[in-house]
From TrEMBL:
Name used for this protein in its record: 7-carboxy-7-deazaguanine synthase
Keyword line: 4Fe-4S, Iron, Iron-sulfur, Lyase, Magnesium, Metal-binding, Queuosine biosynthesis, S-adenosyl-L-methionine
Record HAMAP family: QueE (MF_00917)
Binding locations of S-adenosyl-L-methionine: Y35, C36, D37, G73
Free-text remark on how the cofactor is bound: Binds 1 S-adenosyl-L-methionine per subunit. Binds 1 [4Fe-4S] cluster. The cluster is coordinated with 3 cysteines and an exchangeable S-adenosyl-L-methionine.
Lineage: Bacteria, Bacillati, Bacillota, Clostridia, Lachnospirales
GO biological process: tRNA queuosine(34) biosynthetic process
Coiled-coil spans in chain: none
């Protein structure tokens, strides 16, 4: 598997935000979002270490941390990702996958990790790639995340939340494209549309550390 970084930190995003987590970041992505904060990991020349699922499991176990987040890049594109998910779950770890909404989740629903799935909104430039059928596969411990950079994005998120009754299906987060929309604009939007059951989330690690810092 193509690993570009491994680190321990607090999870800055999702339902386990604030808890310790181990991060495994994989190389390569099938999208190119306008705002991507880890585009470096998607570049063909990005250095990586080839590691087996067993090696990654041993690293995670060695940290003594029980939450593991697989991210990237797009982690579900790694050839051995199912083997890795299996090993991590068997070891009793809490496994979260950060995925971009452009990979069919049906293939990963048998032995189930927790999904934090983005729906890429218009300002990402990647909305055409969204597999909307994934919405139907999300369960109560999963999250759908709308990273929003404009009012147009927020209106699209609202439409999807209503169409798929998302707040009754899973966790729902609105998160600003870091630095490009004021969080208060999202709060005002939530109030205006009475978005009960939806949470605003700001990437905590970018507040704690320099927003461009890697490995945190
Ligand atoms: C770098 S992506 C990797 C996982 C997967 N490719 C995805 O897009 O979900 C991890 C998370 O960071 C979010 N993200 C990336 N750049 C961001 C930015 N500039 N502001 C806010 N969130 C961002 C993505 O939307 C995604 O939820
Ligand atoms: N601290 C921290 N928490 C995170 N949660 C999701 C991340 C990601 O890049 O997918 C991330 C990250 O890069 N750092
Ligand atoms: S899908 Fe994720 S990793 Fe890929 S470009 Fe978009 S934010 Fe970056
Ligand atoms: Mg990140």
């Amino acid at each position: 598997m193509k690993v570009v970084e491994k680190f321990t930190s607090i999870n800055g995003e999702g339902t386990r935000a604030g808890e310790l987590a181990v991060f495994i970041r994989f190389k390569g992505c099938n999208l190119r979002c306008s705002y991507c904060d880890t585009m470096w990991a998607n570049e063909p020349e990005c250095p990586y270490k080839e590691e087996t699922p067993e090696e990654i499991l041993n690293y995670v176990l060695g940290t003594g941390i029980h939450n593991v987040t697989l991210t990237g890049g797009e982690p579900l594109l790694q050839k051995d990702i199912r083997d890795l998910i299996h090993l991590l779950l068997q070891a009793g770890l809490q496994v979260e996958i950060e995925t971009n909404g452009a990979v069919d989740l049906a293939a990963f629903c048998e032995e189930r990790p927790v999904f934090t799935m983005d729906y890429k909104l218009p300002s990402s430039g990647c909305e055409d790639h969204m597999i909307t059928e994934n919405m139907e596969l999300l369960e109560k411990d999963d999250t759908v995340k709308f990273v929003s950079g404009s009012q147009e994005d927020l209106l699209k998120a609202l439409e999807l939340i209503r169409t798929y009754d998302l707040t009754n299906r899973c966790h729902v987060y609105l998160s600003p494209v870091f630095g490009s929309i004021e969080p208060v604009q999202i709060v005002e939007f939530m109030l205006k549309h009475r978005l009960n059951g939806v949470r605003l989330q700001i990437q905590m690690h970018k507040v704690i550390w320099d927003p461009d810092e890697r490995g945190v």
